[in-house]
Design a protein that fits this description.
- The chain has 350 residues and is an alpha/beta fold.
- It contains 9 helices and 15 strands.
- The strands form 4 sheets. Strands 6-5-4-7-10-14-15 form a 7-stranded mixed sheet, with helices on both faces. It has a 3-stranded antiparallel sheet with strand order 1-2-3, covered by helices on one side.
- Helix 7 links the parallel strand 5 and strand 6.
- The longest helix is centred in the middle third of the chain and has 30 residues.
């Protein structure tokens, strides 16, 4: 099977996202990269659920981790009767899908398909573990291939020699945008908002662009207005953890306020990704609330006195009137007309 991660940054190579082998899964711990290159080793699918919930991997990383987690679940229940294996895999599919609530629908498309693949393998007298791993690799190839179409579209929107502002870590779109720019020879500067409290923009997005040779600058999250006004930023872009059919999108907390600033300064904001068919409107987007501990500290060192409280919503919702376009594999859609994306055949993304 030809792999679609050729030429991708270190963070996007399949083995450096999540990888199953011999009854274990290695997941790159993105909480500490690039300060340290460390892999979390999971020996049960329940440990994979915990790793995703604890942000060991995030952005699109869990799409790979849940698939590999299903292979691990099949390994855990090997040797049992077909009915017991099938029931265990269905339970694992649910648990892995709900490791993070905002993206449960997306994860579930992967995990329940893996359960179907495993059951078919069992009926055929084949190894369900191998069948799930193969299906997960095929899913990765599909996703990277579809997102290359998105990256190609986004590259055309960036002016030669211009500057863009990013939010959080868009993972696959970053790798595909880099490949598209290398192919066309386009050069541009990148400003990355740091993305508190886990600093994905500073550690992950900035690493990918800088290591690919792009002029890359990190901003603290409260410098966006300064940069938009004084640094020649011509485009703000982010991926999205949920894209509703009515044009509302959910992405890392802070995206909403940056979209407001972009609107104020007349800078277009382009969201990248594939719309979620099961989300009709913003009401269908669940916002995950996390332990506020990281908000009150930096790398384990408290920033406040004990009496201070914190709040940590993982995502906020940006309304369509602040979005210039949603960049998809089929082209760029006005957010108010995003429902038209489903008028033609939808590529298998997961």
């Amino acid at each position: 099977m030809k792999r679609m991660d050729e030429g991708m940054p270190f963070l996007l190579r399949y083995e450096n996202v999540a990888w199953y082998e011999d009854g274990k899964i290695r997941i790159l711990d993105r909480r500490v990269y690039p300060r340290e290159v460390r892999f979390e080793v999971c020996e049960t699918y329940q440990e994979v659920v915990r790793a995703i919930a604890d942000m060991v991997t995030q952005s699109a990383g869990p799409y790979t981790a849940v698939g590999m987690g299903m292979a691990l679940a099949a390994y855990q229940v090997r040797g049992k009767g077909k009915a017991e294996q099938a029931a265990f895999l269905r339970r694992a599919a649910h648990d892995l899908a709900h490791a993070r609530p905002t993206t449960a629908g997306r994860y579930g498309k992967i995990t329940f398909r893996c359960a179907d693949v495993a059951e078919a393998a069992l009926e055929a007298g084949q190894d369900p573990v191998a069948a799930i791993v193969e299906d997960t690799l095929a899913s990765l190839n599909r996703r990277y291939g579809v997102m290359q179409l998105v990256g190609d579209q986004l590259e055309t929107l960036i002016p030669e020699g211009g500057a863009i502002l990013t939010q959080c870590y868009g993972e696959t779109i970053i790798g595909t945008l880099i490949r598209a720019a290398r192919r066309t020879g386009k050069s541009f500067r990148v400003f990355c908002a740091e993305t508190r409290p886990f600093l994905q923009g500073a550690r992950l997005t900035a690493s990918c662009f800088a290591q690919a040779g792009f002029d890359t600058t990190v901003l603290t999250d409260n410098m966006a207005a300064y940069a938009m006004e004084r640094e020649g930023i011509g485009l703000f872009t982010s991926a999205a953890d949920a894209i509703a059919r009515d044009g509302h999108i959910a992405n890392k907390t802070g995206t909403f306020q940056m979209a407001i600033l972009a609107k104020y300064f007349g800078i277009p904001y382009y969201v990248t990704g594939i719309p979620d068919g099961d989300k009709r409107s913003a009401k269908d987007i669940v916002i995950e609330h996390r332990d506020p501990g990281p908000v009150l500290s930096s790398w384990g060192v408290p920033n406040t006195v004990p009496e201070v409280k914190g709040v940590y919503p993982s995502f906020d919702v940006t309304p369509p009137h602040l979005i210039s376009g949603v960049v998809t594999d089929k082209g760029v859609y006005v957010p108010y007309l995003l429902d038209r994306y489903f008028d033609t055949e939808v590529r298998d993304f997961y």
